[in-house]
């Protein structure tokens, strides 16, 4: 993680979530996404404060996040990798930001940009997707990605 104090990162993230959920109802009719755009700017700041994602072999592009050669027929990894340690925690934090950026873009009807962020989230979580800390986020990102692709506007 970058040298930014954790309290600053947490505060910006919480403010972004509040803008997305609560302030949305206070937007003027002519600017229905005003709070969403403000939330997006804060999420981008948090992403910058977290620093770049480390280069990792599991982050290389894969054909629609489908089964890899080293996985079982059901798509499960050979072993469960827990999201522990600074590298894993950094990947999970970045994945959370990518997820919220993806949802934000989808909510503002920017579907392809939203899908890009969700794919980044899934790549960051790929190794840890069955760990207790990550399975729910991984499933949510998959569902949002599929919904955006198959049912735009919902």
First-last Cα distance:
35 Å
**Which CATH class is shown?**
Mainly Alpha
Domain count: the total is 1
What is the beta-strand fraction?
under 5%
Tally of DSSP helical segments: 5
Question: Can you tell me the CATH architecture?
Answer: Alpha Horseshoe
Strand segment tally: 0
The CATH topology corresponds to Serine Threonine Protein Phosphatase 5, Tetratricopeptide repeat
So what's the overall shape? globular
What is the CA-based Rg, rounded?
16 Å
Helix content: 55-70%
Structural class: mainly alpha
Q: Uncertain spans, ≥5 residues at pLDDT below 50? A: 57-73
Compute the average pLDDT: 84
Please trace the helix and strand order, writing H or E for each element.
HHHHH
Main sheet: strands, sense, barrel: none
GO biological process, one term: central nervous system projection neuron axonogenesis
Region (Disordered): 50-70
Describe the protein's architecture and organization.
By secondary structure, the chain is an all-alpha fold. The protein starts with 5 loop residues before the first helix and ends with a helix. Helices cover 56% and strands 0% of the residues. α1 (6-21) packs antiparallel against α2 (34-50) and α2 (34-50) packs antiparallel against α3. It has a single domain, classed as Serine Threonine Protein Phosphatase 5, Tetratricopeptide repeat, CATH 1.25.40. It contains 5 helices and no strands. Residues 50-70 are annotated as: Disordered.
């Amino acid at each position: 993680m970058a040298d930014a104090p954790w309290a600053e990162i947490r505060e910006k993230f919480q403010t972004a979530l509040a803008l997305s959920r609560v302030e949305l109802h206070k937007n003027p009719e002519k600017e229905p996404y005003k709070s969403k755009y403000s939330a997006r700017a804060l999420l981008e700041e948090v992403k910058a404060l977290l620093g770049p994602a480390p280069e990792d072999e599991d982050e290389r592009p894969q054909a629609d996040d489908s089964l890899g050669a080293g996985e079982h027929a059901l798509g499960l990894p050979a072993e469960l990798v827990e999201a522990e340690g600074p590298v894993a925690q950094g990947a999970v934090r970045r994945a959370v930001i990518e997820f919220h950026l993806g949802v934000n873009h989808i909510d503002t009807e920017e579907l392809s940009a939203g899908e890009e962020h969700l794919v980044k989230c899934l790549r960051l979580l790929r190794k840890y997707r069955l760990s207790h800390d990550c399975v729910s986020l991984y499933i949510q990102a998959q569902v949002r990605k599929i919904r955006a692709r198959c049912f735009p506007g919902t």
